[in-house]
Design brief:
Layout lengths: L2 H9 L2 H9 L23 E5 L2 E4 H17 L6 H28 L5 H8 L6 H4 L12 H13 L3 H30 L5 H12 E11 L14 H10 L5 E2 L2 E10 L4 H20 L3 H7 L11 E2 L8 H6 L5 E7 L2 E25 L8 H16 L4 H8 L3 H4 L6 E4 H5 L6 H10 L5 E5 L3 E25 L4 H17 L3 H10 L5 E7 L4 E2 L2 E2 L1 H9 L9 E2 L3 E11 L2 E2 L2 H25 L5 H7 L5 E7 L12 H6 L13 E2 L3 E12 L7 H15 L2 H10 L3 E3 L7
Antiparallel strand pairs: 1-2, 1-21, 3-18, 3-20, 4-17, 5-12, 5-16, 6-11, 7-8, 8-9, 8-11, 10-11, 13-14, 15-16, 19-20
Length: about 700
Amino acid sequence: MSIIQQLRDRAAILLISLIALSLIGFLVQDAFVGGSSGLFSGPSTTAGSINGRKVDAREYSDKVRLAEEGYRSRGYPMNEMMSQNVMESIWNSYIQDELVRTECNKLGIAFTPKELGALLFSDDAPQEFKQLFTDQNTGVYNIDGARQWFANIKKSKKSEDVKAINEQLINPLVLNQMMIKYVSLVSGATNVPKWMVEKMNTDNNTFAGISFAGFPYGTMSDSLPGLKVTDAEINEYVQQHKDEYKQEKTRSISYVVFDAGPSKGDSTAILNQLEALKSDFAVAADARAFVTRNNSALPFFDGYALKSNLQMAMKDSIIALPVGKVIGPYLDGGSYVIAKKVDVMKLPDSVYCRHILIRTAGEGATPDSTAKKRIDSIAAAINAGGDFEKIMMQVSDDKEANKIPGGIMQFSSMQIQNKESFDPDFGKFILFDGKKGDRKVVKTQFGYHYIHITEQKKFEDAYKVAYLSKRIVPSPETDNAASAAATQFAANSRNIKAFDENVTKQKLNKRLADNIREMDYSAAGLPSRQFVKWIFENEIGDVSEPFDFDDKYVVAVITGAYSEGVQPAQVARPLVEPLLRNRKKAAEIIKKIGSITTLEAVASAHNLTVLKADTVRFADQFIPNLGGEPKVIGAAFYKQNLNKVSAPIEGGGGVYLIQVHNTGALPNTALPAEDQRKMLTQQIKQYINTGTVIDALRKASNIKDNRREAGF
């Protein structure tokens, strides 16, 4: 068996844990966005580049495939959404690797083999690695076992095994430790000088008493001549504020939905189908056979559910039914259901037991006849007064159970009744046939057991219920009608103009979706990587064929395509237009004010109210009757405004005039400057972590994502 296979068998795949290692502090989310198959395809051989370093598409694909295999080996469903998450994680690991290594190389930061050994083979080893060599019962990390495993890896003659360990363990771990050093270096360089704290205290304790009057922008109609904001003005503003209006490569669409969900007729047909089966279900001697034969959407569970665990609709009505009676059809979610109460009995919520096993199957098995004689002898010895625990420790083949204190195992009622993971013969005795204190020899698929029930707790009513359930699904006629309508619409709408005309003609609801990115898993909340690919593989004005989304068909038209860079006017307008319109309003208001004599004279001429604020502090964020106007607050501490009316101040909500009457200083009640300095420095250090550092490095980097062109 290969070393890599041994790893997979031992830890249900090391890879996933080590991907997590490489992304510690950076990928702090488990929200998945999804998918492609992860297989290399497409004309491009480059998945992208990071500061000029190309990412080979085939190498990237191999890493995605290995990660997906890792998830599958751990029982995760690898659907389209999960696959997309894996791709994003691998892509981000490439980015972090390049950015961190580049910065660390510049600064001479390294993580040596000696440091690696000291970390792996100590109690400070990463949890993801330690758990592979930690005894599940004692919780002790087997350092010698880990060291021996690592030594065997180094001796391996299989280059692919060594390569896999380097990629899956060594490189991510070294990268993470280098990142820790780099973040520590940045954090350690943080300092808030004492003079700055003292200046802040002085400013924050300064106050002014002012009078003010304002011309709110809202009093001027947006439709007045001269207030129109052009695309050219928006583009000019955006170019002056590029960092605030950056955008990724995105597209926008309009789309219409043709409902293919079940019609009222479909629902009625399912209801009638169940009504026709109700009487036969009520008299059926074998409830399991009946629901199986009639293809129930809910398979028959041959077990009992405790009353406290019942979650289904009509719970109280089902409990009240006599055994053998039915209720329904009733609506439960998206199905019609008939429930039949098959049986009721008292069962414990949990069972505690211990056992002695003489194995007759698997490695070290004893012949059946010999095993039977041995277990009977063991039972006789214990019944004669022998110590169950001592005999168990000496002879039982279940060594794992022996490691549990007293050998006493705890199982819930539902665990015991799960026939896929719990032996039914063992379970039958400890849950149904036996009671507290009973001991019995039981034959199972594993061998002969001598079982002792030590406790059964929290008895309550438990119910066996059979459900005949039919999902309310669209009929072929309903689905075909929706598909035909969508196909006809797409055929008649081959450009934006025709699309809009047909929307109006057919009185359809046109929906919009923008900011769709190349590697998104969904668009407009519609989960389909293929849908997103179509949006980016076609041009503005192209209309799609119908996309099938389970209960609907969607036809879309591409309405916009935006390159990476700064936002164009049509994208930035919702945010920028109000700012520029207020600038124009401010200019008109300032013209209207004209020459200024006194604040009262201006207020009287323009029907304004003069208000006062006796204690405006430099650190204030909000002033009653004024709001959050930082320019006005700043002007209150401008010496030229003392005892005279200021020039008009263009604020966020209007144009303001102020007059400063007096200034002064409040007593300083803050902590000593040195204590404040230490506290502020610590706050900044806490802000500096892997995420913030990587984010800053990404903003200063040139990253090109070509994965879609490479087929992902």
